[in-house]
Amino acid sequence: MSPPLLKLGAVLSTMAMISNWMSQTLPSLVGLNTTRITTSDTLTQISPKEGWQVYSSAQDPDGRCICTVVAPEQNLCSRDAKSRQLRQLLEKVQNMSQSIEVLNLRTQRDFQYVLKMETQMKGLKAKFRQIEDDRKTLMTKHFQELKEKMDELLPLIPVLEQYKTDAKLITQFKEEIRNLSTVLTGIQEEIGAYDYEELHQRVVNLETRLRDCMKKLTCGKLMKITGPITVKISGTRFGAWMTDPLASEKNNRVWYMDSYTNNKIVREYKSMADFVSGAESRTYNLPFKWAGTNHVVYNGSLYFNKYQSNIIIKYSFDTGRVLAQRSLEYAGFHNVYPYTWGGFSDIDLMADEIGLWAVYATNQNAGNIVISQLDQDTLEVLKSWSTGYPKRSAGESFMICGTLYVTNSHLTGAKVYYSYSTKTSTYEYTDIPFHNQYFHISMLDYNARDRALYAWNNGHQVLFNVTLFHIIKTEDDT
């Protein structure tokens, strides 16, 4: 084949490959094979984790802003994520548009060459026919040379027709890219086009302002309980499990104490995943048996009620020694003033954002609940509050931000029925339902780090999420 024909063959081969690539790859690059381009608010699906969440907002009687804020898990809000993804899509389309423009210029140049060759071939064909009619007058040798050249060119005629078709296809692709760019640009203008660096700076500034705002949040008031999430099924009907609310973010140890009496074994797991899989890391043999299920781990130590006494024990996991013990004066014990389910649950130890607490009942307070704030080192009672709620009528209780929340039952249909604020020394009756999925709760404790309730529900270890109502402090607040 002559050099011009070799060049033409290479061009045609390249055109065929490009045509095939354009038909298969272009739709997936711009999302036409999976996503319908539209100018609605839902250009792409954004993960809920990318969004800011505000549970509620209101004003108090003094006109102060009251709101509930939850920070996102990632650094982009959904609107900005849409803009960034749209910007990336536009860049891809623009790059393809430039490539098609270069291809189009080459196509037009080669197309002129093809048209010229086609004209020459048609003229050669006409001459050949004329010569063939009068071939008797020509020398046989010259005739044979012309015939061979014509035979060589004849197969190119259908190829040239295909080349012209491919050239038209390139023109159509170019037009479709232009239309798609126009649509995407319109969408970008509608939702707002921002440079990524500008977006990132806006998010950083917003996060800084949010952190400053959250520093002003007072302790929250319980508004809602959702769940539960079943973490594991193990043990007897009664028991306790917990994490340390003062532990660092990297420290996620879990402690497990099965049954409400006649036991001294505490099992430790390095993480929640290990707890679920049963990969125990360490076992502690306490010097005393515990009573009830209302223990708490706080700042690396276990606080529990010594069996058949009103003595509180502080046990260090690091040293394996008892660091302190103290009698809780007048506190009933050994099923004198338990929760409704019994189980020697007379003394309930708990922790919240403020510190360490003991909830119990005394004869002096007619069997009603007493709340005492404890010194975490010496176990000395710092201050006590006497409520009017009978301890034996309570299903369980827990502290959040210095307020005691009491449930009315440990069985199905239980709800948070009563609360007592140690800040104002006032109480109120509430109606906050929660789902007692396994029908018998023998432990319910709040963890301030996780903002969750840990529960032992009839041999199931479960978690409840809580929604808190926060008040933003102003400079006028004391």
Please identify the top-level CATH class of the largest domain.
Mainly Beta
| Tally of separate helices | 6
**Amino- and carboxy-terminal Cα gap:** 96 Å
- Structural category is alpha+beta
Backbone CA Rg: 39 Å
DSSP strand tally: 22
Query: What form results from the Cα inertia axes?
Result: rod-shaped
CATH architecture of the largest domain: 6 Propeller
| Helix/strand order | HEEHHHHEEEEHEEEEEEEEEEEEEEEE
Biggest sheet statistics: 6 strands, antiparallel
Disulfide bonds: 219-401
Coiled coil: 79-141, 170-216
Keywords: Coiled coil, Disulfide bond, Glycoprotein, Secreted, Signal, Synapse
Main location: secreted
Explain what this protein looks like in three dimensions.
Disulfide bonds join 219-401. Residues 79-141, 170-216 form a coiled coil. It is found in: Secreted; Synapse. This protein folds into two domains: 3-33 and 80-126 and 147-217; 221-469, Neuraminidase, CATH 2.120.10. The longest helix has 56 residues, at 78-133. The protein has helices at 3-30, 78-133, 140-153, 156-191, 196-215, 272-277; strands spanning 53-59, 65-70, 221-233, 239-242, 254-258, 265-269, 282-285, 296-298, 301-305, 311-316, 322-327, 348-351, 356-361, 368-374, 381-390, 397-400, 403-407, 415-421, 426-433, 441-447, 452-457, 460-471. The protein has 478 residues and is of the alpha+beta class. The radius of gyration is 39 Å and the shape is rod-shaped. The strands form five sheets. Strands 1, 2, 3, 20, 21 and 22 form a six-stranded antiparallel β-sheet that branches. A hairpin with a 6-residue loop joins strand 5 and strand 6 (265-269).
